[in-house]
Design goal:
Layout (H helix, E strand, L loop, with lengths): L3 H19 L7 H10 L5 E5 L5 H8 L3 E6 L2 H8 L7 E3 L12 E7 L10 H11 E12 L4 E7 L2 E8 L3 H10 L2 E11 L2 E10 L3
Parallel strand pairs: 1-2, 1-4, 2-3, 4-5
Antiparallel strand pairs: 5-9, 6-7, 8-9
Helix pairs in contact: 1-4
Length: about 200
């Protein structure tokens, strides 16, 4: 039987084309992207974690950041190619990043960590801390709520995706334990649900 990660990966493989067509407009995260860009100056090497089709990777590169994407679903990354994107990307697991220590200056993790089973989030955050240089910036967004569960349909497909819901008092201690210092963040209500965003940096000690 497939576990939560495998089944969610299979769902994204199934919905890749529909997802890419529906998420080209990045206005919903434009303000967060602008804030993140203030934390990573031009020339910074940035990991777009869970990049999907790579739309945010492309925006970051247009703003002179040396951004590259990583996603577990190869078809999702290829879906971006069909929309004219030619951003560098690699297939990989966010709990075992194929990167050297302190390889990047910033990590953009927009709506990607929300699929990880709850016990795995500390592992993923530790990996982000490992690959970030001291003082490097992190942005992440997850869905707010309690518990976890499956969404059975996605983008007009019967494709089940696993979601874990977070609150500030459950997420923030994990960031601190992984060696991050919280800069700012908040909660937002959108058509796609309720969201929790965090800007942080890796401790320099």
């Amino acid at each position: 039987m497939m576990d939560e990660t495998q089944q969610t990966q299979a769902a994204y493989t199934q919905i890749a084309a529909s997802y890419a067509a529906a998420t080209q407009d990045r206005q919903a995260v434009a303000a967060h992207l602008e804030m993140f860009l203030r934390l990573v100056p031009p020339g910074s090497r940035v990991l777009d974690l869970g990049c999907g089709p790579g739309f945010d990777t492309a925006v970051l590169r247009q703003q002179q950041r040396r951004a590259f994407g990583l996603d577990l679903s190869w078809p999702m990354m290829q879906a971006g190619r069909r929309h004219g994107l030619a951003v560098p990307c690699v297939q990989g697991d966010m709990c075992a990043l194929p990167l050297a220590n302190t390889a990047v200056d910033g990590v953009w993790a927009c709506a990607s960590l929300l699929h990880l089973p709850r016990p795995l989030l500390p592992t993923a955050l530790a990996e982000l801390a490992r690959v970030l240089r001291p003082g490097g910036a992190l942005y992440l967004s997850v869905k707010t709520g309690s518990g976890e569960g499956w969404a059975e349909r996605a983008y007009e497909h019967d494709a089940a995706r696993f979601f874990v819901y977070w609150q500030p008092d459950t997420l923030d201690p994990l960031l601190t334990q992984a060696g991050f210092v919280l800069l700012s963040g908040g909660q937002e209500v959108a058509s796609s649900g309720n969201w929790l965003a965090r800007f942080a940096y890796k401790e320099t000690r």
